[in-house]
């Protein structure tokens, strides 16, 4: 896998049209959309299970215990290195934990979703072994995990408590601080502590009416009286994944056992090739579907998982100790690695610098022509980079947001291994597209997962159609719609939002605009919905922000833009002329209105006002623009508004493309 496959790019394809006749909801003979496309290896039938007899996560774990029982499974940092529990030991503790939960009646069965009887249990902690052992116990005893995390925001936690009516939460010491700040506890009454906490915290939690248990107490209780496992079905609800709200409360995506089983099968159908010799470091947030899917795939294959210590500052040391063979990350962190590696190379002088520059040039040429990742001689120039990732990384994965081509190509040649780009949403169980090791081109999605079919639907308002031609070549463009075994069951207690996401034919509308590449892959080029992701993977709702900015003193209009390759938003602000001129007089600044809009002191004043007003109105740090362009002309003069004075973002993006580019350059 380390060496690319020469001259394959010209004839290898990611997808092809699905052969179908009069299928309900089919695109055949329909206008305004492409034909349905599938992975070239699964054109006739989408992949549902990894192999016969594994239709639920419960069956998957039983299979892994039987095959890999004595092999190391989950580890955490103890003393000066990682210590591991075997698959058998993890399973035993999960049985004891689940039995203890049952014996103490900590989870009640409720019938709150269609015909399902749900047993909901919360967890609020960073990645750790106990988190996954609880997940394992839930799989055995048919409970549904409801993960919480701090970035949901203080208002979202009570909302989820109210919507789910959970009575028991497993919680880390750090997370108790967030819970104490919540005004409402709703039906939550039992807290299982994963860490020791102070006497003051104990008193505060008890004053709020919580009953406290220790994790070890629950396990010990179950050890004394073991309860028989509960059989689950493929349609059983495995977990809720709450996505950060963009214009309101978070939405709880309902994901079943079959959703994840098909996603695991599809992950194994990619070039990742996870196997029992692999080692993975878990630090990406477990409440997010990407890390959850990676962990479950590792468990299916008998691989080893080490959990970081929860401190980003210690992650580098954790990597060195664990020495993973598979490394997954997001563009934001890869960009930091890239910047650090480039800085080190720039410090080199003389012969070493000349050798490094030649190594970069030759390896990039080989990568982009033959998808070749290694080179006996020139790999020596990057030994320090390989050591940075532990020294034995054979494959890397990136997801959650797009990554720049120059970054991913450089990391491929310096880490001397492939980096697979993946795309998926919470609503599609994390994997919908993946690139191949054989592909020399970067910065695209690759082809559809083995459990997924896709189509592109025209978005005429944005001039994207299935009949588009670019440079003389037919290049279908439109909204990416997905269908298959990975598509979620809906949003919990929110039929309206569910209907917006999934149409009557079962198609999940992603809101992402894509084009089909010459070899059947997909590349994202725009966003249909008025939300976007920043480099951190966090969603931004520009309309909400603009509504607040437009109330700032001196602001007439605003346009918020964010690039998923960038870590900040930019703001195009149309200032009120009389306010600017008044400030200029007070500050003794000379110039006409257009000149004043370029004055650093005036721009700084607007930045301060936006910062102060934004924070007063509970905008977070990512929603407060530090990159501002003051535009003296109203947006209407540029044709950016509809007849009803609604902002047309795709036009505004084009109109202010130079200003946006300049603002992002100014932060470099």
UniProtKB/TrEMBL annotation:
<dbReference type="GO" id="GO:0005524">
    <property type="term" value="F:ATP binding"/>
</dbReference>
<protein>
    <recommendedName>
        <fullName>AMP-dependent synthetase/ligase domain-containing protein</fullName>
    </recommendedName>
</protein>
<dbReference type="GO" id="GO:0004467">
    <property type="term" value="F:long-chain fatty acid-CoA ligase activity"/>
</dbReference>
<dbReference type="GO" id="GO:0016020">
    <property type="term" value="C:membrane"/>
</dbReference>
<feature type="domain" description="AMP-dependent synthetase/ligase">
    <location>
        <begin position="65"/>
        <end position="492"/>
    </location>
</feature>
<keyword id="KW-0067">ATP-binding</keyword>
<dbReference type="InterPro" id="IPR000873">
    <property type="entry name" value="AMP-dep_synth/lig_dom"/>
</dbReference>
<keyword id="KW-0547">Nucleotide-binding</keyword>
<dbReference type="Pfam" id="PF00501">
    <property type="entry name" value="AMP-binding"/>
</dbReference>
<dbReference type="InterPro" id="IPR020845">
    <property type="entry name" value="AMP-binding_CS"/>
</dbReference>
<dbReference type="GO" id="GO:0005783">
    <property type="term" value="C:endoplasmic reticulum"/>
</dbReference>
